[in-house]
Amino acid sequence: MRLTRSGSSFVYQLTFMPSLFPVNCYLVEEEDGLTLIDAALPNSADAISKAAESIGKGKPVARIVLTHAHGDHIGALDALKIRFPAAAVCISARDARLLAGERSLDSGEPNTPLRGGIPKPGAIRTVPDTLLQDGDRIGSLLAVAAPGHTPGSMAFLDERSGALIAGDAFQTRGGVAVSGHLRPWFPFPAWATWNKEASVNSARKLLALNPSVLAVGHGDLLQEPAAAMRQAIAEAEKQMNTSKEK
Residues 64-94: pLDDT tens digits? Predict the structure, then answer.
């Protein structure tokens, strides 16, 4: 595992398999403890626990917050909940259904297939404590609905530093890209994306937050990311429009 601090901010990136298939989760320092954003892979619990102990210096893991319910973001959730039983588990109300293995779409949602590693019913034993809505606050984090990769994907803006933990709404591995826009050197987030049009709309919304740092599920931290995010959105829009014309 590789540990990277986001400049002078309160956000630490934990990267598993950094050279092969980077999977990130994040620890965010708060006054009352640490917030873990995402739970990485099933075998990640030991490394996450050790990192939390080192960073927190006695502070507990107070919250486990999930950007979405794909397997590489929830893998160690049950193990971590056992290690940190007092930690409140938070996920969007929409993706809580995916976490429980419920794959139906709402009547107003685009009828495109759900993709990626959605757990089977009962595979995840942990029941969320808090179902998040757009605009909710979790400590210093602002919850921002960012559907597209999944129907209930969320990003989290640290309002102290401007660091944006975006889940898979963007990737930086293989080139900065909006979820659903294929990057041949790392195509996996695109392959796992539910709806490309919703992804682009969410990407515009996240760009408008003017983040100081972009922290994603797959790839390195990106400082001052606005220009790269803007370019990625333009490329995704072009690709989407070309597909519609065919």
Answer: 999 999 999 999 999 999 999 999 999 999 9
Three state DSSP letters for the chain: CEEEECCCCCEEEEEECCCCCCEEEEEEEECCEEEEECCCCCCCHHHHHHHHHHHHCCCCEEEEECCCCCHHHHCCHHHHHHHCCCCEEEEEHHHHHHHCCCCCCCCCCCCCCCCCCCCCCCCCCCCCCEEECCCCEECCEEEEECCCCCCCCEEEEECCCCEEECCCCEECCCCCEECCCCCCCCCHHHHCCCCHHHHHHHHHHHHCCCCCEEECCCCCCEECCHHHHHHHHHHHHHHHHHHHHC
Q: What is the rounded average pLDDT of the residues 186-211?
A: 97
CATH code for residues 2-245: 3.60.15.10
- Which residues in 37-67 are b (16+ Cβ under 10 Å) and which e? bbbbbeebbebbbebbeebbeeeebbbbbbb
Residue position matching structure tokens 């319910």: 69
Query: Does the pTM of the predicted model rise above 0.85?
Result: yes
User: Cβ neighbours of residue 45 under 8 Å, at least 6 residues apart?
Assistant: 76, 79, 80, 83
